[in-house]
# Entry
Amino acid sequence: MYQQNSTTPKELFGVLAAGAIMLMVVHGLGRFIYTPLLPYLVDDGQFTASDGAAVATWNYLGYLMGAILAIRWYRVSQIRVLLPVSLVVHVITTLLVTQTDSLTAISASRWLNGVANGVVFVQAPALILEWLVLRNRASMSGLVYIGVGLGLLVSSGLVTGSADWLEGAERWWPAALISIPLAAWGAYRLSRLELQDHEHGSDGKAATTTPLIDRASIPLFLSYAGAGLGYILPMTFLPLLAKLELEAGHWLLDGVWVIVALCTIPAAWLWNRLGTKMGDLPALKLNFLIQLAGVLAVVLLPGAIGLVLCAALVGSTFLGTVLLTQRIGRALHPHQGPRLSAAMVALYGFTQMVGPWLTKQWLDAGGTLVSAFGIGVAALAFGLIFVFFVPRPEVWHARTLRFD
# Structure
């Protein structure tokens, strides 16, 4: 087995950077670049805000399906095939949307792009974690998610920087062109990882028979569902809301997404530290409260103040929700780590798909976009309530031993 001193800092950085770049490509240049693009595409007349919500729903449906595919094909040998294939799908589907104004074609491309996103978002961190575990460096695996924050910042810069000289479908070109070299390098770097499939021993088989769904994990799953539905509304529609509420030329029309991106970059490190200092469960409760306040601000304080608060508070918390929930789940069921993680990603993907769909129904029924954010408020309040029903891992295990 590898020891800590057998891997150089340069090698560790290279592997983590490759994973972060993969997430930046599929999440920043695939999924979330659509958020700052949406108001421009609506303004260009490519489709309406309601149609834009439908396109987002197709993308999130693809993400859910990709996560489910990743659950099915989880071995190292399978990941080595699916990762590069998914990155190729990302590049091709992004190139496709540069060539069409057809809502059907855009929706189909965004669905396939979401499938690729879901596969990479599950498998790239899983592959890197497996590699880090062999080197006793598993605690560094969370650094991969810095790529999500960087992706938000890069996507914001690409959209803003090209806003005056591109129009309609052309606005996807920067994301498509920059994805090609980044995806190629990330896939090449991770393809060189020295890993082999391994069979589970008899102890491992026995351990995986413990229930995945029980009194401890049910409230955790429910809280995570609330988090997924609650955060996806601002992460999909905040720049469009800024366009509807602010005058032309206001700095927040593009600046609101920059705020989200800047606050997201240190979020994984921040919540990892808070969880270590105060405990993961108390930190998760604080995380939900801050995120809830952010979405509530945009409902109660229309205009610049509410937009800034929402961007800053949601941007600085949503990755923390992921990190803390996954860590609590592993602590409650240490033998169910991979299955629990995959199930949570799939659940998160489902609730993210529901958010834009509900928004579309609300807008089609005559509701306003700002009032639709009330769905996010209710979802986060729902999630916060169920966090209080999640037992502390040490208490849960003591109780389980007592009844065995």
In short: The chain has two domains: 1-195, 212-404. The two ends are 34 Å apart (CA to CA). The first helix runs from residue 9 to 31.
